[in-house]
């Protein structure tokens, strides 16, 4: 039995734990030797730190317990040298977050459907009462029209044509030589850009890694200069403000054109 399997099976013995799932690239089978494990521990009550430490100490050579930068997690290195992120979630809270998106059509500014994607694509390792599998069946549905429209409407307005739009903010930051702000706003632009692109194609969002390759592989509607524009954006954003502005304008125009074309065909 591998250190990874031994570890999750030990967690499955805790009475607080209701389900355990593997996410990320290892769940989908697209990973390499450097890929870590994303292990999701769903629980009705958080296992005590002492319980967690005892299990982790047996199976990991290094551990950071109780990191809470995003979700509560223990970040560790297994005894075979592979890193693992152990994330603790309330299954009820997780279900509510997905309902807000899928049932209520709540759009975010980027990454809107990541949790839904996580649910659909995870590999369930343990499910004490079948609640996680039931949740997955509940949301194995077609991409809702309202959600798609809300994501596109909210995020396209952030790309251009409004005072707070990212292209406007990037141009102002570049004009004053504020490269930190250029970097920050360009990252935000891409968050909204990819949220629109995935919603346009009725694809759930895969998360912050491999977005471009995921779009190339799965998106039926892809901007004509997709790869060229990304390359130009990254090579010019700190050195050529005019080229950056032209590239952002073309990216936004081509994406908006695809949205219009899809709407006319609907």
UniProtKB/TrEMBL annotation:
Superkingdom of the organism of origin: Bacteria
UniProt entry tagged with the keyword Transferase: yes
Keyword Transferase: yes
UniProtKB keywords: Transferase
Classification via CDD domains: NT_KNTase_like
Domain DUF4037: start-end pairs: 121-209
Domain (Polymerase nucleotidyl transferase) ranges: 7-103
A Pfam family this chain is assigned to: NTP_transf_2
GO terms for MF: nucleotidyltransferase activity
Protein name: Nucleotidyltransferase
Species, as recorded: Bifidobacterium anseris
């Amino acid at each position: 039995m591998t250190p990874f399997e031994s570890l999750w099976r030990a967690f499955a013995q805790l009475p607080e734990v209701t389900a355990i799932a593997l996410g990320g690239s290892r769940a989908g089978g697209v990973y390499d030797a450097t890929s870590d494990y994303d292990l999701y521990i769903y629980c009705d009550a958080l296992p005590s730190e002492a319980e967690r430490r005892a299990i982790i100490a047996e199976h990991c050579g290094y551990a950071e317990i109780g990191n809470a930068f995003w979700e509560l997690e223990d970040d560790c290195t297994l005894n075979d040298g592979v890193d693992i992120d152990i994330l603790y979630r309330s299954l009820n809270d997780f279900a509510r977050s997905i309902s807000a998106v899928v049932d209520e059509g709540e759009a975010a500014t980027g990454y809107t459907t990541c949790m839904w994607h996580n649910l659909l694509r995870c590999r369930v390792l343990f499910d004490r009462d079948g609640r996680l599998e039931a949740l997955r069946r509940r949301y194995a549905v077609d991409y809702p029209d309202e959600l798609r429209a809300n994501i596109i409407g909210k995020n396209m307005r952030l790309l251009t044509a409004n005072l707070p739009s990212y292209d406007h903010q990037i141009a102002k930051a570049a004009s004053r030589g504020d490269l930190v702000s250029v970097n920050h706003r360009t990252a935000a632009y891409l968050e909204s850009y990819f949220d629109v692109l995935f919603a346009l194609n009725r694809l759930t969002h895969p998360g912050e890694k491999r977005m471009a390759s995921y779009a190339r592989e799965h998106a039926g509607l892809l901007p004509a200069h997709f790869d060229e524009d990304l390359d130009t954006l990254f090579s010019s954003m700190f050195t050529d403000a005019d080229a950056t502005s032209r590239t952002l304008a073309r990216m936004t125009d081509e994406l908006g054109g695809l949205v219009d074309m899809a709407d006319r065909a609907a």
